[in-house]
Amino acid sequence: MTSAKSSILMEYETGKILYENNAKERLAPASMTKIMSLLLIMEQIDSGKLKLDDEVLISDKAASMGGSQIYLAANTKMKVNELLKGVAIASANDAVVALAEKTYGSVDKFVAKMNEKANELGLINTVFKNPHGLDEEGHYSCSYDMAIMARELIKHERILEYTKIYEEYLNKPDGSKSWLVNTNKLVRFYEGVDGLKTGYTTNALYCLTATAKKNNLRFITVLMGEENADVRTTDTANLLNYAFNSFKLNNLIKKDQVVGAIKDNKTVKNKYNLYTKEDLNDVLEINDEVTYQKPYIDYEDLTYPIKKNTVVAYLKYKTSNNEILSVPLIVKEDIKKANYKDLVFKNFKLFLGIN
């Protein structure tokens, strides 16, 4: 379906793989590395530890980066918002190094966090040696792992406000402006594409992780090792065309639905409702009709106390294809084991016929 060395197509909501070719082959990811860098940065922003209007002091190391750059000058300051533009639109190596130093103190600490996050996500075919993606011995990933990273990054929806930009002015510290143009041409020419990251080195060749959304359906594609930028763009468009023309999303249950309860007279209350933590969807081919058995609840080992919003069980559906789909269930209030006073009070209410 593509001429890439490695490729994959994933549906975003479910993470279901719809097409793959050599998807777990370890290859140089080039600037697609910045997907993981952006993920760490967005975690800092969304947690409030880093703000878009924070000023970042540009180090000699950041200013000296080669490859794609926005030509930062050492000992000047630039706001996080502008640096994010530089990374997301222009794939600026100097900007991502400056943000790495700002968020974790040094590039080495940032790279260690990148690898820690990769391990947390179960990415066994990924090792990072730098935050930018310039070729380095032992720096590799694969299409499958890049798709997982992209899916995690997109959960931080604010990043799409940057990656969907095709052309934009960058405000520089001296008051001047420079014009940025996105190397992901699909942002401009393919309806629904709002990211995510291109890459190129002589070793990696042409790479692209893209995402597009139409009619509440989002897909992620990854191509690694393409011959040139035009083929990379065409192959990605073809994968997305195939996805949107071939698949549909079937919603089984919505977020925040009450589907059962924990009932235990040894707790302060006898009953605690279980709520779906998120929507549960299934991806089907356009003409497929799949039936589902009656769902059942699979409980975790429950140990009190339990804090509200803790996952305590899973609602599971079995399809006619013997596939198991599940959605986590949470409680929306703290659950505490009843003490002697609580038990006396409950028995008294029971005696009086009070629920």
Explain this structure.
This protein is an alpha+beta fold. The protein has two domains: 243 residues, Beta-lactamase (3-Layer(aba) Sandwich); 99 residues, Peptidoglycan synthesis regulatory factor (PBP3), Domain 2 (Sandwich). The strands form five sheets. It has a five-stranded antiparallel β-sheet with strand order 2-1-9-8-7, sandwiched between helices. It has a five-stranded antiparallel β-sheet with strand order 11-12-16-15-14, with no helix packed on it. β15 and β16 form a beta hairpin.
Helix and strand topology:
Elements lengths: L5 E6 L5 E5 L12 H13 L8 E3 L2 H4 L13 E3 H11 L2 H12 L2 H14 L22 H12 L5 H4 L3 E5 L5 E5 L4 H4 L3 E9 L3 E10 L2 E10 L2 H18 E7 L4 E6 L7 E6 L3 E6 L10 E4 L11 E8 L5 E7 L9 H13 L3
Antiparallel strand pairs: 1-2, 1-9, 3-4, 5-6, 7-8, 8-9, 10-13, 11-12, 12-16, 14-15, 15-16
Key words describing this protein structure:
355 residues, alpha+beta, Beta-lactamase, Peptidoglycan synthesis regulatory factor (PBP3), Domain 2, 2 domains, five-stranded antiparallel β-sheet, globular
Short recap of the structure:
The protein has helices spanning 34-46, 60-63, 80-90, 93-104, 107-120, 143-154, 160-163, 186-189, 229-246, 340-352, and strands at 6-11, 17-21, 55-57, 77-79, 167-171, 177-181, 193-201, 205-214, 217-226, 247-253, 258-263, 271-276, 280-285, 296-299, 311-318, 324-330. The chain is α+β, with helices and mostly antiparallel strands and 355 residues long. The protein folds into 2 domains: 6-248, 3-Layer(aba) Sandwich (Beta-lactamase), CATH 3.40.710.10; 254-352, Peptidoglycan synthesis regulatory factor (PBP3), Domain 2.
